[in-house]
Structures are given as C-alpha cells and as structure tokens.
Backbone:
C-alpha cells in the first residue's frame, strides 16, 4: 500500500495542467458500447477508475486500447452482458453500465455496487427509471441484479432527486428506445452536458442537458443510426478546485491551465471569501492565496450549480486554519466527514453533528500519520499536509489515485515537498 509523505509549509508557485474529468469520462466510456462502432476519446485521464472501466468493457467483449491520453473503443465485437461481481464491487460507478448494456444487449447481470465510504449508495432511482422505460429488473440473491428489456420505450420520467448517475443511465438507455424520453429534475452537472455532447456526436438526438429537463429522441433501436465518434472530454473541475485549495492554504501563487472556470464557480466564490485572489485568462486561472485565510462563514453542498459535495473535504481543510469559525453543511451524502477525525489528529478543531461540521480555525496544523478513507477526504489530507508544520504521512494512496493523475508530481512541480512511496 503506497502513502504520501509531505513536509509542509512551502508556498506553492508555478503552473499545473488540469487533466480530463473523471466524472465525465466514466459515463462516456460506458456509453461508447451502444454505437457498435469505434469511439476515439481524447483527454482521458489515466486513473484507477478509468482502468477499471476499461477492464469491464473488455470483459463485455469490447476491444479497448488506451495510451494514457486517448482511449480507442471498438464495441462492434461486444459479446457479453455479464459484469463480474469482483469488478462491479470494486467501483461504485459500475452501475453506469446498467443502461448501456441493457440497451445494447437487451439484458444485463451486475452486482449491486453497494455502499462506499460516503454511506449507503442506493440505486433505487436508476432502477425505477429503467423500469418506467420498460425494463424488467430482478434483485436476485446476494445483491445480484438481473435486468432484461426486449424493447425500451421512451416516456416522461420525473426524478425524485437530481441524481447524476441515474440521469446518465436514463440518457444512454433512452438513445435507442422507441419514441421520446423526457427527464425532469435531471442533474445539471457539466459532466451531464459532456455526455449529451458525446452521444450527439455519435448520432443521438438529445437536448436540454444542464437545464434540468432533458429531451432524448429515441432512434427506436435503429442500430445503424449511431456511428463512430471522436471526442475530447472536458477538464476535471474537482481536480482544479483541489489545486485551488492547495494554493489558497499555502498562500501560494499558482496558474492552473485547462480550466473551465464556470464549472467551478461556487468554489472560486467560497475561496474569494477566504481572501484568495483569482485572475482568469482564456482557459487558465491564476490563484493567489492570502497571508492569512479569512473565515468562510458557511458552505452548504448542493447539486450543481450549487457548491459541489466533491469539494467539501478540501474546503474543510482550508477552513481548519482560517482566522475564525466556519460551518460546513453536507446535504448530498449521508456520511462524508471521515476526513475530520484525521484532520483532528493534525490539530484541527472541528466538531461534526450529522451533516453539519463546525470548524474553528487554528493557528497551525501539525504534521501527523493519517489515513485516507475515501477519494476526496484523502485529497483533503494532502491539502492540509501542505500547510501543516512538519511531516505528514497520508496512508492508503489507492483512494486518491482513483481521482488524481500524479498528484504528488504535480504538487512537487510547484514547490511542494511531497513524495509517494511504498
Ligand atoms: C456522482 O455520483 C459522482 N460520481 C460523485 O463523485 C458525486 O459526488 C455525485 O455524483 C454528486 O455530485 C461520478 O460521477 C462517477 P448521485 P452518483 O446519484 O451518481 C442519492 C467523486 O468523488 N441517490 O447524484 O453516485 C445518493 O445516495 C464522486 O468523484 C439515491 O438515493 O451521485 C446521494 O445521497 C463521489 N438513489 C445522492 O442521491 C439513487 O438511485 C447523490 O447521488 C441514486 C442516488
């Protein structure tokens, strides 16, 4: 098991290039199985989750080549509808294959992805919507899901919650359904818009992504209506936000390249409250941290365009050394404060009650031996370690490698004293 070792206190200074978006590429890879043709996808980040998705696609019979930047998928040779329990349980996002495989093969067996570090991760909204499209879905023994659908038929779907994954599953399944599907209360994240653009590039007819109401004109399983596609994925807004937090907490001066600032506006707004300055140029943004961070009064995580839950942990780290008290309210996930116990080991003064965390800024954090419990919580510990006095060891790097390409190399390139080792 690898760990990160950080000698804190260095102000970051320099340039970091932001990689392609994990949460855009995962549904796009799953969607690439429905065109029975070749999909060439650029700006594909070399992440553990991406490699797992590719393993599942190969398990389904697709031919996939990946050079670390561009993925080439030939789904014409797909010959299976069974996703192994091992792969399904390895990554929560495997559920995103439900719609695509059902649409392509007419059936699928997949393990319920189960909960993860963020608390129970039900898929009831996915299953309810796919049943409305005409799928028969059976919960078999020990969490195995079997679904079949001879003909998916478009319909009006009102999501009880703007679930990102459920929106994506419905969009993909509806492309080859008969007639129009309308998704109301759909997720509005930029990754949903990217998925719409990718599907339209292969011949689908979708509009409204990002607006909350999405219209998909099904091609009625006309297999030839979709064709090969070449596409470039958007940059990762959460990776960009994480490096913004790193620049802010260290009082650094960092230019982030390949950033769509609209996608991360709520994080920029919150960091401005802490005294961090931003200067935007084309697709770059310069982030200048203050000598002393002012308190951020309150942050409430919400579905896009609200403050992203995936930046909650990193901002808790920033707030833990601000000059005053801040409140974090996590409204999206039930249990997403596992990083707090680890931050307290570093001297942070944080009290958690359910979905609320009260963060009283301290003068300094002290380096400590801490452990990543989930992807963004692990990133938050690295952010805190960059500021802490002395040496911080962040154990269990595997969580962090799921969502950040070479985070230690990128931080070292702007002056951080950080290495990854066994
Ligand atoms: C996506 O997860 C992201 N993952 C998450 O990023 C992100 O935190 C989340 O959206 C919210 O923005 C990917 O895109 C791969 P949801 P997803 O369905 O689709 C409940 C990261 O760190 N819910 O919008 O699983 C659910 O329990 C990851 O990159 C149901 O109740 O999120 C949660 O409380 C973490 N029933 C809330 O909705 C369902 O059927 C939001 O979940 C589905 C979801």
Residues:
């Amino acid at each position: 098991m690898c760990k990160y070792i950080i000698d804190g206190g260095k102000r970051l200074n320099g340039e970091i290039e932001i990689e392609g978006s994990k949460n855009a590429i995962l549904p796009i890879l799953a969607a690439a199985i429905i065109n029975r043709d070749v999909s060439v996808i650029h700006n594909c980040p070399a992440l553990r989750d991406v490699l797992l998705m590719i393993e599942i696609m190969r398990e389904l019979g697709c031919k996939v080549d990946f050079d670390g930047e561009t993925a080439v998928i030939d789904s014409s040779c797909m010959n299976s509808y069974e996703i192994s329990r091992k792969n399904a349980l390895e990554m929560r996002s495997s559920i995103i294959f439900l719609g695509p495989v059902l649409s392509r093969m007419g059936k699928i067996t997949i393990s319920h992805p189960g909960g993860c570090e963020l608390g129970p991760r039900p898929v009831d909204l996915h299953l309810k919507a796919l049943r409305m499209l005409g799928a028969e879905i059976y919960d078999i023994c020990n969490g195995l899901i079997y679904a079949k659908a001879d003909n998916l038929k478009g319909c009006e779907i009102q999501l009880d919650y703007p679930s990102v994954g459920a929106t994506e599953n419905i969009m993909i399944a509806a492309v080859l359904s008969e007639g129009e599907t309308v998704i109301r209360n759909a997720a509005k994240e930029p990754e949903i818009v990217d998925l719409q653009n990718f599907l339209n590039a292969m011949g689908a007819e979708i509009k409204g992504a990002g607006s909350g109401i999405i219209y998909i004109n099904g091609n009625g399983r006309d297999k030839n209506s979709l064709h090969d596609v070449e596409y470039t994925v958007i940059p990762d807004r959460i990776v960009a936000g994480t490096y913004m937090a790193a620049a802010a907490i260290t009082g650094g001066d960092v230019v982030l390249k390949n950033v769509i600032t609209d996608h991360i506006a709520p994080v920029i707004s919150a960091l401005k409250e802490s005294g961090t300055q931003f200067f935007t140029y084309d697709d770059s943004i310069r982030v200048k941290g203050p000598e002393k961070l002012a308190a951020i009064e309150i942050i409430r995580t919400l579905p896009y365009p609200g403050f992203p839950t995936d930046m909650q942990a990193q901002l808790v780290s920033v707030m833990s050394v601000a000059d005053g008290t801040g409140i974090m309210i996590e409204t999206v996930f039930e249990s997403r404060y596992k990083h707090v116990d680890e931050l307290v080991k570093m001297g942070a003064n944080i009290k958690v009650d359910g979905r609320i965390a009260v963060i009283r800024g301290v003068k300094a954090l002290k380096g400590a031996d801490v452990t990543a419990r989930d992807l963004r919580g692990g990133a938050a510990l690295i952010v805190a370690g960059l500021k802490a006095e002395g040496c911080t060891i962040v154990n269990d790097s595997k969580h962090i490698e799921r969502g950040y390409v070479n985070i230690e190399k990128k931080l070292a390139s702007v002056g951080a004293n950080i290495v990854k080792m066994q």
Notes: The two ends are 6 Å apart (CA to CA). The CA atoms of residues 101 and 108 lie 6 Å apart. The chain has 14 helices and 23 strands.
